[in-house]
Amino acid sequence: MDDYKAYFKHLDYLREERSIHVDDFCEDICSSRQYRRYLNNENVISQLRLSKFYNKLGLSNFEFISSYYASSTNDYRLLADFYYSLFGKIDKDIDNQYAILSKRSFSTLENQKFFQLCNIIYQKNKNQITAFYALDKLGRIINYPACTEKLSYNFIEIATIQKMGIIEIEIGNYDILENLYRIIMRDGFIYLTNTNEMLMPNICQSVSISFGMKGDIQKSLEVALKGIEFSLKGYNHRSLAKLYYLAALSLDKLGRKIESYSYARKCISTCVSTNNEILYNHYISAFKREQNYSFPGLEFEQK
Fold this sequence. Notes:
The protein is mainly alpha-helical. The chain contains 15 helices and two strands. The chain has helices at residues 2-17, 22-26, 32-39, 47-56, 61-86, 94-102, 109-125, 131-142, 155-170, 175-185, 199-214, 217-232, 240-253, 257-273, 277-290, and strands at 152-154, 190-192.
């Protein structure tokens, strides 16, 4: 049912793209009033009637579905670009990106929710909305806290809970962070995605840092180790050195010096194996300053 709602939104996007008036588009198919009911999700269009509409655009079933997925993929890339810009990970004109995306009509439910998430983060960053208002709006996107009882989560759900946790910490509360910890550490936790494999190690990095700042070193360690597990499973290695560093730091604070040094070496080894001299120098200095560690045999060599 949700598929047909999404298909119809894409159909209407194609109609607007071709500057076809609704009354003309509906002729011999349905009333313009019924068309708007489909568009507003008051009724769900049938496959037969949907095919009459896209045939009217000169498209076969294959061409229409291909167009739908092509549009969805392009929308997602634009949203992902904007999302990472909001966290300073991509140097782009955020206001211009926002203006462009605000005018788009997203055909899939996932992309609609993704834009809602980005929109709230953008408004919060601009101080256009309060922390309490942002928490309420973000919670509505994913039906929080009811969603925390599940075993499987997609990118939007995890990213939204993470952002809610960050905002809640600003007002001195850690309840959402604790819920995210329980989700990540739960037996049978499943992260469902075909688009944002890199997210979970980054999420674990952020949550580990937050628990460290809170002073809960044991949870900081547990989440860092979980992030390492996600990284090594193939999600991505971009956060691996940082996660090894966080694990080493937590183990040191817990008095587990031998394990701490082992993870410190893994951190430095990762920097060497990825040929990242900047991170290598950063962590060498950090470990020397904080734990007085040295790493014979792990010198950085220019390639």
